[in-house]
Amino acid sequence: MGLPVGFGPMAMTMATAPATLAGTIAQENAEILAGITISQLLSLGLPVNYWGIPHIIDPATGNISFGSPEQGDRFSIRGVGEYKSEKKLVPG
């Protein structure tokens, strides 16, 4: 069948993604599902991993905050249980 493919965009709230938690979740979910769709069109049944690599920008410094509480919140809120693939959160 092939090696699993992982899709994990690194959406950064207030930088490459909307400033709201809901907006960032929606954008990252859409990017992951687009990757999964393309992979299945190219090779039906290819195993895929649903990765979450969300980050938030510290507005005071402009630095990326690795391991922030928002990362876990985004992954749990996202509702990834609806999809039949392995789920992973990469905090940093």
TrEMBL record:
Residue ranges the record marks as coiled coil: none
Kindly list the biological process annotations in GO that this record carries: methanogenesis; methylation
Q: Which InterPro entries match?
A: MttB-like_sf, MTTB_MeTrfase
Q: Gene3D superfamilies from the entry? A: Trimethylamine methyltransferase-like
Lineage start: unclassified sequences, metagenomes, ecological metagenomes
Per UniProt, the keywords (alphabetical) are:
Methyltransferase, Transferase
Q: What is this protein called?
A: Uncharacterized protein
- Determine if Zinc-finger is one of this entry's keywords: no
Q: Which GO terms describe its molecular function?
A: methyltransferase activity
Q: Hey, which family's this protein in? A: Belongs to the trimethylamine methyltransferase family.
